[in-house]
User: What shape does this take?
Amino acid sequence: MLKTKALLFTTCALALAVSLACAGKKAVRYGKQKIGPGSAVVVVVDCPTNIQNVVLAKFMEKDYRVKAFNASDLYAMRDVYDIRDFKKIAQESSLNDQGSPFNIQKAHDNLYKLTIYNYEMQKAETLGEMKERYNVRYLILFELNDWERVSWGRAIDLASYELVWLENYPTRYSDTIESIIDHFITSLSGM
Amino acid sequence: MRLRPLLFSALAAALALAVPGKAAGDVAFGYLLNRSGNANYDYLETIFPNSFASSLASQYMMTVLRPASVDERFRKRGMELKKLYSVDELAQASGIAGADYFITGSFLPLPGNRIEIRLSVCGRKTMEVFSFTSTERMEAEIFRLVDRVTRVLAAYLRGDGLYKARAVPAGTRIAFITNVSGEELNRFYIPFLEQGFPVLCAQNNDIEALTASGHFAAFRYVTTKTGSLEPCGDARNVRFYHGPWNNSRFDERVKETRDFFREFDLAYAGTKEKALERMARGFGGSADVLMIVGFSRDRRASWVRAVDMKDRSLLLMLSIQQPDSLFDDPVAAIAGMIAADLPTAPGGAPAR
Assistant: This one.
């Protein structure tokens, strides 16, 4: 009787742990418009060049017009987040002067916020340039992960700056890079 | 024996009833300065705070201190309750007033029978000041105006820093800045997209959110023309020591520091306005709302700040605590709660 209870308890605990752990690993998908073959796309994927080639080849196989673009061409945060701006706020203040540290922190925080706004603004401008100069319609982002983790993708329509497709795909044990990309292409093309 | 189940039920019911709602703390009111220079309106300097205090006490059961009682407390310390306080002075004033919150402000009668009311709410313990501007019609019966302003005050005081200027209908295009990225960001976006809010690519063109540092909490403070939440510091208090040791290099450093504080503190609202203007242009005018959402490390708590990108006014301040269910993904659950709340009209304070 005790054994059965222990078994039941362990099963319940395991089920609870599994369901809690899986809450964030669920597959999710949203598609607002189809991105079919023939579309001019830039694909950004965070992985070594040889794997990037596999991903790009898959898109080219399916007749997408893949524009040559390197992720590092995108405006990087470190280009804007200029640490030199912060040196001017190094201040000496006495412990008796309670106002000063507050003021310094406030100005420092404001500078940080402006830097982030600036970064987002620069990105928007870069995307605009990508659309105008290189005639790109969609920017597609991927992060590919191993089994037990989640691979994800997002697509942005540069005509409207809107997010038009996204998917989280829990990578299966049997998956390869090709099969994951095939899955994503099928999903974003709505085929 | 038969009474035992009844006893347990009664005990459970009593416990349930005894669980307190969110206690807002007590509120002290200062005067509201008449900014018009027309002495005919001076009587409102006392009428307004007294009316707000009465309304908070009667409608929201809050403990209030009227300006006369607050003035008495100041006099006991050999001081006088002023009509106008700077953000920096508010911290000290709220300490003397002795309540959890100290509220003061000003008003300006406008043409067309309207009135602009600016209020600042200083939290004595948090040392944070929430300020908002409300332009209302001067009603024949002042009670309606008082009710509307009190509703905003009560929502903030009892709703864990809640402020909502208006409903945000589905179809509004939102640009997000948040400290989640990758697959989590996808789960965050889904509820907004499903509720019909187009999401702009403010942050979804990164592989990693570079805002994922502890510093992101700086965005909790917000500054706009119509509303702000800020710490009680004032750059004007930074002292620059001058003396015989001054030389050109020292003077240059002082000048740089002064310029820094001017740009990033005193004139921050203007500096930020320019940054947001350029950001709006960057998105080709397509961003309706800029929404900043900060998540705690365990993702079970978050805060929201939203700015209307058309007129750069404060739209929403909201704090969301841990979702009810243990089984839900907290990021998606919190995003769902925000998305569901957006189209609802700003109501009164949550029930006690």
Chain B has three domains: 27-159, 174-215+271-341, 235-266. Chain B has a mean pLDDT of 83. The longest strand of chain B covers residues 101-110.
